[in-house]
Amino acid sequence: xxxxxxxxxxxxxxxxxxxxxxxxxxxxxxxxxxxxxxxxxxxxxxxxxxxxxxxxxxxxxxxxxxxxxxxxxxxxxxxxxxxxxxxxxxxxxxxxxxxxxxxxxxxxxxxxxxxxxxxxxxxxxxxxxxxxxxxxxxxxxxxxxxxxxxxxxxxxxxxxxxxxxxxxxxxxxxxxxxxxxxxxxxxxxxxxxxxxxxxxxxxxxxxxxxxxxxxxxxxxxxxxxxxxxxxxxxxxxxxxxxxxxxxxxxxxxxxxxxxxxxxxxxxxxxxxxxxxxxx
Length: 279
Ligand SMILES: [Zn+2]
Fold this sequence. Notes:
This protein is of the alpha/beta class.
């Protein structure tokens, strides 16, 4: 048995633009977060220097949906999602959903979400989370946009709801973001047409089971993300996460899957472009 983790060493810090020979796409970043308010332009410069050509800024509320659309309009590498994250559903006013729906047609909106289910925080009563997850899935069918799916300690329920949608309408266009489930969950999602995205957690020392799952995802269904500002990958663990750090997750996944970094970059970038219809 090969043990890729043993061979892996933290990559060097992102290099200058001239040293980067491939493009990466960070498919999930919360750049609207106040932790980026003071230095967002510098964050975007570091991302470009690390080869990150596109960044999808992901909404969690009606208000952040507006901000994400606005960020997409102001910064060339940024694209937006609109939606209400399950933990924020509880604080959503009835008109918030209407606002999300009205933002769907805005420029540079490439996906809906993040949506999904969360039994870890459980701020929002579960039936209400299911209601909003179903609304996002229905809106995705109506608009043709993919869905960004958040799942925490709710794998069986997410698969159940996706399966109901799949059995009615066919393959689900979307991504299981920051995937932390087991191999069976990954296979269930892949079988319904979904992409699987890995974030910084896959680089953590105790995450061998997740690396074992990452090895099994077909090359045409794999995505990478940071979920900035949360959970920065090794060797930046503990810091504020930012899109440039997606290069570390890409390097680790290349090692785990036994492919060259350029190959992993090519696959994940092509996949992100395909799923999100990015230029
Ligand atoms: Zn997120």
